[in-house]
Amino acid sequence: MTFSTKRYTLPLGQKTYIMGIINLTPDSFFAASRADRFAAVDRAVELVEQGADLLDLGAQSTAPNSTPISAEQEAERLLEPLRAIRQAVDVPLSVDTFFPEVARLAAENGADILNDVSGLASREFAAIAAEYGCGWIVMHTGGKKSSETAAYPNGVIEDINLFFERAYAAAAAVGLEPSRLCFDPGVGFGKTREDDLTVIRRFAELNAFGCAKLAALSRKRVTALCGDTLYGTLTADAACIRGGADLLRVHDVSQGKAGATMADLIFRQG
């Protein structure tokens, strides 16, 4: 199985891929990930040199207490840096958004992957990915924002798996191949810290239908439970790799790459 776009193919099961984060925002929770449109290209090149296999660009913060902006404002922040980064590096570019109209503009301007954080698993998003040959990352939120928590009467793993099933069906309905899909259980979105720990602990039980699985927990609140969000991230990422994570979305690329390489040697070899 692969995670594929029109331009790129990532074979699954052989290694863990590192997705470096570039936030084109003034209010993302981790300040070191922020880059304005003038610094974005240099940051992209730097992350690729550090070992990023993909880059994820976000122009609207989804962190708790962030200020929402319109689709038009998000596109204004995003498109110029996206086009410039597309010319500067030869790795898959992902765009993090919950607006279908921004996803379409991103696809038209060089994005390879649409990182859908809407929590809706809509056919509209899937259809845009199919039309432009993009990958589609679908994130579970329990219908809530990062500052809110949802109730899961049947357990958080069961709710995530039902959501993934709906997303898989939405993709099939518009002809988006399974190789274009990647599933993100949404650590930190609509979940308590115990829910987050359950997702990390039981990552192997997430049913991705053979498609790619993304662990996107870098420096989130759950990683602070040990007192250090970097060390917390590296440990949690290793647990997710053991559970079958194919991609890690990280702020700290060089450290994340080293941790993933070691985890691959332990869990993917022999």
Concise structural overview:
With 270 residues, the chain is of the alpha/beta class. The chain contains eight helices and ten strands.
Q: Which SSEs are present, and which pair or pack?
A:
Layout: E1 2-4, E2 9-11, E3 17-23, H1 40-50, E4 54-58, H2 71-88, E5 93-97, H3 100-108, E6 113-116, H4 123-132, E7 135-139, H5 156-173, E8 181-184, H6 193-201, E9 212-215, H7 229-242, E10 247-250, H8 253-267
Parallel strand pairs: 3-4, 3-10, 4-5, 5-6, 6-7, 7-8, 8-9, 9-10
Antiparallel strand pairs: 1-2
Helix pairs in contact: 1-2, 2-3, 3-4, 4-5, 7-8
Task: Give a written overview of the molecule.
This protein is of the alpha/beta class. It contains eight helices and ten strands. It has helices at 40-50, 71-88, 100-108, 123-132, 156-173, 193-201, 229-242, 253-267; strands at residues 2-4, 9-11, 17-23, 54-58, 93-97, 113-116, 135-139, 181-184, 212-215, 247-250. Strands 3-4-5-6-7-8-9-10 form an eight-stranded parallel β-barrel, surrounded by seven helices. A two-stranded antiparallel sheet has the order 1-2. Strand 1 and strand 2 (9-11) form a beta hairpin. The radius of gyration is 17 Å and the shape is globular.
